[in-house]
Amino acid sequence: MRLGVGDPAPQLRALAEGEREVSLASWWVDSPLVAIFLRHFG
Fold first, then answer.
1. Are 14 and 26 spatial neighbours (Cβ–Cβ below 8 Å)?
2. What is the pLDDT of residue 37?
3. What is the reported pLDDT for 28?
4. Within 10 Å of residue 24's Cβ, how many Cβ atoms?
């Protein structure tokens, strides 16, 4: 999937504290969100 400038963000879900599933869109309803995804190579 390719996203361009101005494209709507995809509807993603993630695990929050307590392992409850939340929609990432719910985090940027009131203000912008910067999401950083790190991958651990260990």
1. no
2. 78
3. 77
4. 15
25 neighbors 32 (Cβ within 8 angstroms): no
Here the tokens at position 3 are 């996203």
* Residue spans per domain, the chain: 13-42
pTM: 0.41
Please report how many Cα atoms fall inside a 13 Å half-sphere around the Cα of residue 24, on the Cβ side: 13
pLDDT 10s digits, 1-37 = 788 998 887 788 888 888 889 887 787 788 887 878 7
Q: Is 18 left (phi over 0), alpha (psi -120 to 50) or beta?
A: left
What one-character-per-residue DSSP string does 2-37 give?
A: ---TTPPPP--EEE-GGG-EEEGGGGGSSS------
